[in-house]
């Protein structure tokens, strides 16, 4: 079938919306989804810029929502007409999936970044007869239609305004890093490094957890202001030379938790320095493959600090996304305040607004 899709040609280049071919002969576990909307996440830009290995030119996008139009063979839990949020893919069959940690799925890397279909065969996307990279997170949802899989969708009530619930990656990851991994309580103090889509969602989750102090560390002033509106009790310019000292002063000795949401290896050291004894740093933001971070080892040993890597907010999406939707509907998790909608055709404006820091999370409405 012919679809419209945004093609990323090369690092830094604008995307071009074109008619491309999608091989819609569905295979086992595949679904054809009409995309209603897709948010833009930092990872899309890292892929576009070749900081994550992925075949370009390609169709990106991995925070899609839409309506299931057809299902392939052996799809047991999704039906034609279902409204779905697309999220991280997994195979549903490996030890980690069966053990309740689908975010660590043995096939996860290939299904997210391999550029191939669920069965491992070449991309279903073609332009002028030549294969295009696709299937990012088994979506590539900067497009009017995608081939998704049974194990990357969460079915939601059909009455929901779907284009609002583009929560399958950044929002889930930031909220999950707080609610599933760090699990702070009303007595906790937490510093969140980076107040983009992931960090802002983490701040909302920290507020929902009742945290006593929530410190947003962020270079853009407008994002610091929004962080304060969302529930941060303090904000710090991440370019200050004494970020760790400021956090220790605010918290009276150090924060219980720090969450590194910015994809920047330089935030790990101040995050560790900001912790109280026994504190934990969660590392969410991935600056790309091959990038090391450094910190002074003796500073974590003497006072028992922990570094915890977090993928996808350690979420079981089919349990966690309905919880976030419910919290949103009760007014406890107003993540819609960080979204801004754009027409699909305006994808390059949306990307440049995000890169300039004037918009936290753009949403393309197809
Ligand atoms: Zn698995
Ligand atoms: Zn993402």
Please give a handful of descriptors for the protein shown.
366 residues, Rossmann fold, 7-stranded mixed beta sheet, alpha/beta, 18 strands, binds zinc ion, 2 domains, 6-stranded parallel beta sheet
Task: Give the arrangement of secondary structure elements.
Elements: E1 2-8, E2 16-22, E3 30-39, H1 42-48, E4 58-59, E5 64-71, E6 83-86, H2 95-98, H3 108-113, E7 125-127, E8 130-131, E9 145-149, E10 153-156, H4 170-182, E11 189-193, H5 197-208, E12 213-217, H6 221-230, E13 234-236, H7 243-251, E14 255-260, H8 268-273, E15 275-283, H9 298-301, E16 306-309, H10 317-329, E17 339-343, H11 347-355, E18 361-365
Parallel strand pairs: 11-12, 11-14, 12-13, 14-15, 15-16, 17-18
Antiparallel strand pairs: 1-2, 1-4, 2-7, 3-5, 3-9, 3-18, 5-6, 6-10, 7-8
The site of one zinc ion has 5 residues, from loops.
Written account of the structure:
This protein is of the alpha/beta class and 366 residues long. The chain has 2 domains: 2-166 and 334-365, Alpha-Beta Complex (Quinone Oxidoreductase, Chain A, domain 1), CATH 3.90.180.10; 170-311, NAD(P)-binding Rossmann-like Domain (Rossmann fold), CATH 3.40.50. The chain is built from 11 helices and 18 strands. Strands 3, 5, 6, 9, 10, 17 and 18 form a 7-stranded mixed beta sheet that branches. It has a 6-stranded parallel beta sheet with strand order 13-12-11-14-15-16, sandwiched between helices. Helix 11 links the parallel strand 17 (339-343) and strand 18. Helix 4 (170-182) crosses helix 5 (197-208). The longest helix has 13 residues, at 170-182. The model has no long low-confidence stretch (mean pLDDT 96). Bound molecules: zinc ion (2 copies). One zinc ion binds at residues 90-91, 93-94, 96-97, 105-107.
């Amino acid at each position: 079938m012919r679809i419209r899709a945004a093609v990323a040609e090369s690092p830094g280049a604008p995307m071009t919306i074109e008619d491309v071919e999608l091989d819609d002969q569905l295979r086992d576990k595949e679904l054809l989804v009409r995309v209603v909307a897709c948010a833009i996440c930092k990872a899309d830009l890292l892929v576009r810029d070749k900081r994550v290995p992925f075949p370009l030119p390609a169709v990106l996008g991995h925070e899609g929502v839409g309506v299931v139009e057809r299902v392939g063979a052996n799809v047991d839990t999704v039906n034609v007409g279902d409204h779905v949020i697309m999220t991280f893919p997994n195979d549903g069959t490996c030890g980690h999936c069966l053990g309740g940690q689908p975010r660590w799925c043995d096939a996860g890397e290939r299904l997210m970044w391999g550029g191939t279909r669920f069965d491992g065969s070449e991309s279903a996307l073609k332009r002028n007869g030549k294969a295009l990279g696709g299937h990012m997170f088994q979506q590539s949802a900067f497009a009017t239609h995608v081939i998704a899989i049974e194990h990357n969708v969460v079915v939601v009530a059909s009455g929901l305004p779907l284009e609002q619930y583009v929560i399958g990656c950044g929002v889930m990851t930031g909220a999950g890093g707080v609610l599933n991994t760090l699990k702070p309580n009303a007595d906790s103090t937490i510093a969140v490094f980076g107040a983009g889509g992931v960090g802002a969602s983490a701040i909302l989750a920290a507020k929902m957890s009742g945290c006593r102090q929530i410190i947003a560390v962020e270079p853009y002033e407008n994002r610091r202001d929004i962080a304060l509106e969302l529930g941060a009790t303090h904000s710090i310019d991440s370019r200050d030379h004494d970020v760790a000292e400021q956090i220790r002063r605010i918290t009276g000795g150090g924060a219980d938790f720090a969450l590194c949401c910015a994809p920047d290896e330089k935030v790990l050291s101040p995050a560790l320095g900001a912790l109280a004894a026994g504190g934990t740093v969660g590392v969410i933001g991935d600056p790309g493959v091959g990038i090391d971070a450094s910190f002074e080892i003796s500073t974590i040993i003497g006072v028992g600090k922990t570094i915890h890597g977090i993928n996808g907010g350690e979420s079981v999406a089919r349990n966690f996304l309905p919880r976030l939707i419910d919290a949103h509907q009760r007014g406890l998790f107003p993540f819609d305040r960080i979204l801004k909608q754009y027409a699909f055709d305006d994808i390059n404006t949306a990307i440049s607004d995000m890169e300039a820091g004037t918009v936290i999370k753009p949403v393309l409405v197809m």
